[in-house]
Design brief:
Layout (H helix, E strand, L loop, with lengths): L32 H20 L1 H26 L4 H22 L1 H9 L1 H16 L6 H27 L15 H32 L2 H9 L4 H42 L5 H11 L5 H18 L2 H31 L3 H15 L1 H18 L6 H7 L2
Length: 393
């Protein structure tokens, strides 16, 4: 049987192959999004607790900082067979007595400065009228008159419809309550009592920490983990916190003494009254980063202006304060602090602002020690090393 080639169906044409899609590029996140979200929520919760329980954490942190500052002295006395309880008690009492004597010696200067405020305010008003009045109405007075006229015109324009719609209604004027001196005295008394209570609490906490010695240190090492490597990391972190804290506090103490002496001598040479009190204030406020020096500069310059009524005197006092703070804050202390803490200045500035928002003035004072402790821990925990890298120099 012969086959006809016409009876054979031609082969079906294969469909064109679809165009191949380019391979997809997958970006791998360096961190797990879920873990990051949980970490952020945990951080927010911790900040909320720290802000809410600031009355507890602030004395605790102050006691820890003071114990770090005083422990080398107590440890040295313990090596010569002096009991820690006795040496810590004598040391704390001596510090309290010296602080009280210093403040008591400045009471007369402070009272004289406070008593001179009314006269200084009158002098400021006279100088402002002489320099800016020029025999005519001052600009501020002109603006006030214009504001009064605008308010009167607005009342007249709005009174007609209101009067037509509300005839027979009586106008009600809400007066502010009079000044109550008893309320302000009570508020001040409560504030002083709160300060005394916080001081007593910090004193006893510092004493107990000094007496305990390295008890809590050994306990922290014991609970750090079962392995020898974990205990070694805990010991290294505690050693670094201890050494950095002591060096930082020593630098701040010497810097405050230098600023107080230099500012007091400079203010006395410029003729500022109560120069010793201003020098003491400059030394104490120097412990508050960034804000304390600015407050002393502005306040001392204002006091010099109110004292003599001359802008040149105020500028000279401000220049002395700025020169002392620049020499201390931009040359000596940053060099010594960088060697003590090895931290990034930008991270330190942002961290101090954050702690100042959290705890106010106490946060500004405790911000850098807290950041030093955080960095020492983060440098030795794998999951927290990025934070330590951000804080490092």
């Amino acid at each position: 049987m012969s086959l006809n080639t016409n009876d054979i169906d031609p082969p079906a044409t294969a469909p064109p192959a679809p165009a191949q899609e380019p391979p997809r590029v997958l970006l791998h996140m360096p961190v797990d999004v879920r873990s990051l979200s949980l970490g952020i929520l945990a951080s927010v919760a911790v900040l909320a607790v720290l802000r809410w329980a600031g009355a507890f954490f602030i004395p605790l942190m102050l006691g820890l900082v003071f114990s770090y500052a005083l422990s080398p002295i107590v440890d040295g006395l313990a090596r010569v067979r002096i009991p820690r309880a006795a040496s810590a008690a004598v040391l704390i009492l001596a510090i309290l007595a010296a602080s009280g004597a210093s403040l008591y010696s400045m009471v007369d200067d402070a009272n004289a400065l406070i008593n001179s405020l009314p006269a200084a305010a009158r002098k400021l008003g006279d100088i402002a009228r002489q320099k800016f009045g020029h025999g005519q109405s001052a600009p501020l007075e002109t603006v006030q008159k214009a504001a009064v006229e605008l308010q009167r015109a607005a009342e007249v324009a709005g009174a007609t419809p209101a009067a037509q719609a509300s005839r027979g209604l009586q106008r009600v004027v809400v007066e502010k309550p009079p000044f109550d001196i008893r309320e302000h005295l009570w508020t001040g008394t409560v504030g002083v009592a709160n300060l005394i209570g916080q001081t007593v609490l910090v004193t006893f906490l510092t004493y107990f920490l000094l007496v305990s010695g390295d008890t809590f240190r050994r306990k922290l090492v014991k609970i750090a983990g079962p392995s020898l490597a974990q205990k070694k990391l805990a010991v290294q972190a505690l050693d670094e916190i201890n050494s950095q804290m002591q060096r930082y506090l020593l630098v701040q103490l010497l810097a405050s003494l230098g600023v107080g002496l230099a500012s007091g001598i400079g203010f006395a040479m410029a003729g500022l009254n109560h120069a010793a009190a201003w020098g003491l204030a400059a030394g104490i406020l120097n412990l508050v980063p960034y804000v304390g020096n600015a407050v002393v500069t502005v306040a001392a310059a204002l006091a010099g202006f109110l004292q003599d009524g001359e802008v040149n005197v105020a500028l000279a006092i401000a220049g002395i304060s700025i020169a002392v703070n620049v020499l201390e804050g931009y040359l000596l202390v940053p060099w010594a602090t960088s060697r003590a803490s090895r931290m990034n200045p930008v991270a330190v500035f942002v961290g101090v602002l954050a702690w100042g928002w959290l705890w106010g003035v106490w946060g500004l004072l405790l911000g850098i020690p807290v950041l030093m402790a955080v960095k020492a821990v983060c440098d030795r925990v794998d999951h927290l090393k990025p934070i330590g890298e951000l804080l490092g120099d």
